[in-house]
Amino acid sequence: MAAYAALLSLKYIIQQIQLHPCPPISFDQNQVDSLTDNLNFLQDFLEGYSYGCSSISREAVDVLESRIKNAALAAEDLIETRVVDQIHGGSTAHHGKKISSSDFHQDLEMVIQDMGFIKKDVMEIKENHIGIEDHLLRKSSTLGGAGASSSPSTRQNAMVGFDDLLIEVMDKLTERQSNLRIIPIVGMGGIGKTTLARNVYAKPLIMHHFDIRAWVTVSQNYNVQDILIEILLCISKDESLESLSAKSEGELGERIHKTLWGRRYLIVLDDIWSAQAWDKVNLFFPENGQRSRIMITTRLSDVALIGSHGIVMDFLNEEKSWDLLCRYVFEEEDDCPPELEEIGKKIAKNCEGLPLSIVVIGGHLAKSKRTRKHWEYISENTNTIVNLEDNKRCLKVLQLSYNHLQVHLKPCFLYMGFFPEDNKIRVSCLVKLWVSEGFVKPINGKSLEVVSGEYLQELCDRNLIFVHKRGSYGNIKFCSIHDLLRDLCLREAEREKFFYVTRLHEPTIPQGINTQRRIGIHQSMLEKDYHPDPVLHTLQYVPLVRSLICNFEEGLPLLDFRLLRVLKVDDKKSYIDNNRQYEYSVEVVFRLVNLRFIAIQSDGPKSSGFPSSVNLFWNLQTLVVNGTWDVVAPCEIWNMTQLKHVHFDRLELPDPPTGGKDDKFVLENLQTLTSIRNFKCGEELVKRIPNINKLQIFYFEEPQGFFSYCLDNLGHLHKLESLRFSLYPINKPSLNDLVQNLILPNSLKKLTLEGTYLKWEDMNTKIGLLPNLQVLKLKVNSFVGTKWETVEGQFCNLRYLLINMCSDLEWWTTDSSHFPRLEHLVLQQLDKLNEIPSGIGEIPTLQSIGLNLCHDDAVISAKRIFDEQEDLGLRVRVVARDSHFESLAGPNFQVETW
């Protein structure tokens, strides 16, 4: 995996240099062609092996991967050192040796030759099939392996916490629908899918309901013939393994079809990993109108699409986790001893709702001393014990999911371990990091950020990454990873030297730290005696480091990190601490010219400036600086053609230069500009940012007013999908000219307005006709007037509508056809709004209504709509100023008092 990531990263560097309008170095074209040819060949080889298409032994591949990784990293070091030297005017390299142009080409030629030798070895291995077949691939596809688990144990595994799901599955199996139905059970490895299926399978009601039952475990590396044989052995007592083994797949399938025809059957396909496996056997299951059912268990959401109305298994809550732990620890006792209950609940909580983890730790506790001291030790080391206990059972279950990943997803998954434990990771940041790390394989017609988002969705579909929070139009906003999966990431990363994350109280500098490319430093806020000095001292020994992700309370010394590409530092304090020797500022960071990704907190509310040397960043893509206000960017920013994402707390952009050599640059890669102050939106500026996708702009009153601003030019930003437009004027009348000139592009999908003081009638001309608008957020004083009357033919794609503190609004007249696709309505602090129009409740797509501190009559109208639409799944959440609405509360009508 690390070899594949290194190949992708090297290809990305070469591509960025070749496509750069002012490349920092030049290549010999013959060398580039040879290097690229070798990289493509080795990448194809690793991708082919990843999918299990190779007969090469795992041991041989490990050796090859190590050689490939080392060669790719050597080339990367050579090229990036040369780039930094050239930008800094030929300063010495990190080895203290000056690299001349001829030395660079000679050294690069040696790396190319080394890769050529590796390529030759791979070709020889592929041609001669050197190496034993991977026994891991064969072991799980043999009949003996499948047969061992094909008949589910009738022993009732503890099904604590999933009683409702058990009933739901049984209802689906026994309902009166006559046609064949496929019922998927989907969830993370260890969540209890097989246990749930086994408990259902062994229930007397199910045993009597079906004429024939069969259970077969499919697994990752399945064999169709073995699956069919196992089914026949379950459904036909007259068959023998010996006789069936001599038959072809077609003969076995025909026998199954004849045996099942005319009978009510239940087939369980446990642990299925691909839709292809289903495609190869499903034609043998007859649709006979007998209320037959097929139940599948899978970790993969796309496989679950085989069926309909599936069961999605989620983590247990703390109460159910404790109940399950007690079931395993105190099997023959009524209750937990009082002195162990508090620490026992902490242990259960540490398992984060994963049943397999709870079962494994419960088995350990059942066999060990029942003393508070021992249980406190367990609570402090829960994950370590879970991973080692029961012959590493839990770790092996989770490892299967990682092994099954396609190779292009593995670096992105392992990267999740780079973040602190229990971290809620902002997805917009994560996908940018994956791109900056060079993990994302280019796809024609798609930006790397879009491809990166698709990688994230794939990992979510495989239940390896979990959605923590979604945005207003369904996008994943925050994600997380289970602690045990993070432990898996850390183990694999350590094995492959992919990244290093500091451990608390680590007594010595770990061996090999000087070769680490990625380092994470995270202080646990619970560790009061944690001192970062040894960790910071460690950073002196990592001259090749490319990525630093830090989260602790001390200043970070930026030593000789001249090759650094990613810097993400979320310090809790300012970067200048008078009590420490470390000083950290924007100016210091801006000397690290190889950076692609910067996310820092600056050294004060007013920065000493935005250095004009910013254009020395030859490949800077993401620039995020928080904590600095009213910074004016230098004109050199218009030369930074690689920039994709820019955010300051308040940044003012200068007008682009006209005339001269700097006039030619267009920031075609720029996608995001946020918190831009007094954005003039001139014609020349708009031409320089043709592909801007997300824009957040706000305006403060200036002495000369807004006369020089040209907001009608916003309509020329044809790629703009998300716009936040905020006004903070001293005098409302000065707004008229500015707001009336506002023209919005048809490409908009999300629009947030604040302080614009538009009239509700303006909605019909400026916003309602936007054909792609999905999210509309009307914040404080964005619209004024007592009445909003909508018309048909507008808001044709709007999914989410928020109205906040438009305090004049009393009457809202609308019809269901005016918001034909609305899913979520949120109303906040509308003190005068008399009611929610009844037509809103008739919108067939409506899923939720939220009211926060609104007029009582609006709450009553929401209750009326809810009563009429409850059967359609409508949810309502009310936050009221007093408790008199609490009597209205119910399962889907939530009431909170503010």
Topology:
Blueprint: H1 2-19, H2 29-50, H3 58-87, H4 101-128, H5 135-139, H6 143-148, H7 163-174, E1 181-186, H8 193-201, H9 204-209, E2 212-219, H10 224-235, H11 241-245, H12 249-260, E3 265-272, H13 275-281, E4 293-298, H14 301-304, E5 311-312, H15 318-329, H16 338-350, H17 355-367, H18 372-380, H19 382-403, H20 410-415, E6 425-426, H21 427-437, H22 448-461, E7 466-470, E8 476-480, H23 483-496, E9 500-501, E10 518-522, H24 533-538, E11 547-551, E12 566-569, H25 586-589, E13 597-601, E14 622-626, E15 631-632, E16 645-652, E17 672-677, H26 683-688, E18 694-700, E19 722-728, H27 735-740, E20 750-754, E21 758-759, H28 762-766, E22 775-778, E23 783-784, E24 787-789, E25 800-804, E26 811-813, E27 824-828, H29 838-841, E28 848-852, H30 856-869, E29 875-880, E30 893-897
Parallel strand pairs: 1-4, 1-5, 2-3, 3-4, 9-10, 10-11, 11-12, 12-13, 13-14, 14-16, 15-16, 16-17, 17-18, 18-19, 19-20, 20-22, 21-23, 22-25, 24-26, 25-27, 27-28, 28-29, 29-30
Antiparallel strand pairs: 6-8, 7-8
Helix pairs in contact: 1-2, 1-3, 2-4, 3-4, 7-8, 10-12, 15-16, 15-17, 16-18, 17-19, 19-23, 21-22
